[in-house]
Amino acid sequence: MATAEELKVRYDDFHLKGKKRILERDPGPPVLWGGLQGKMHLQTNLVARFGPHPFLRQLRIILGRMRIYEDSFLAIRDFIPHATIKVAKEGEFDHKALFMMSAVQIPNSLTFDRLIFDPAGNILLTSTCIPQLLEKARRELDEYIVGSGIEPVPIDILHSAICRFVTIATLEREVFVQESQKLIAFVEEVDEFLQNHPVTLPVSEVFLGTIYDTLEQ
């Protein structure tokens, strides 16, 4: 289990790499996030979906106005905001047993204290304070998945994807840089606020399904 300081260092590293990637890109059609890769569609995802919250609504409104991307995949607008609890690779096991075992262990709310870019330039809501109850649930879920002969996907952070960018807008280079810097400044301003004033999001339901099911609105 990573400490809060270890998670902070990791998130800072994510953010710097993501910011660098955004600033070094050229305006035009290159794809940042091309959707599902490989056999991801065969994986089983266990997620905690969040209920309505003014913080998430405000993020959607502001990020939806950003000009540097022609297309994006935005929480609330395009999919239900959620945090990934556990991912299992393809295989056969008792999904109902997994769901019932997890549903009683997931906290009723989750607290987040960082807003960062990931190394690909997408925006994540993350937490340096992962609840012990969630850590315990993840360990027990790993044991159950492994016992079913399936490989779990390692997850040792708590994150919620807020915005996955798809294609870059066709803008003049100077304008693109200016718009990129606006986006970075906004993310870093919110990140600084959250480090002093974490936001707690209510868990409306625990959901089990494929990644396609997870991303349905």
Overview in brief:
The chain is built from 6 helices and 9 strands. It has helices spanning 4-24, 54-63, 95-103, 132-147, 173-196, 211-214, and strands at residues 44-50, 69-74, 82-88, 109-112, 114-117, 123-127, 152-153, 158-168, 199-209.
Q: Topology of this protein?
A:
Layout (H helix, E strand, L loop, with lengths): L3 H21 L19 E7 L3 H10 L5 E6 L7 E7 L6 H9 L5 E4 L1 E4 L5 E5 L4 H16 L4 E2 L4 E11 L4 H24 L2 E11 L1 H4 L3
Antiparallel strand pairs: 1-3, 1-9, 2-8, 3-7, 4-9, 5-6, 6-8
Walk me through this protein's architecture.
By secondary structure, this protein is of the alpha+beta class. It has one domain (4-214): Cyclic Phosphodiesterase, Chain: A. It is built from 6 helices and 9 strands; from the N terminus they run αβαββαβββαββαβα. The protein has helices spanning 4-24, 54-63, 95-103, 132-147, 173-196, 211-214, and strands spanning 44-50, 69-74, 82-88, 109-112, 114-117, 123-127, 152-153, 158-168, 199-209. Strands 4-9-1-3-7 form a 5-stranded antiparallel β-sheet. β5 and β6 form a beta hairpin. It is globular, with a radius of gyration of 18 Å. It starts with a helix and ends with a helix.
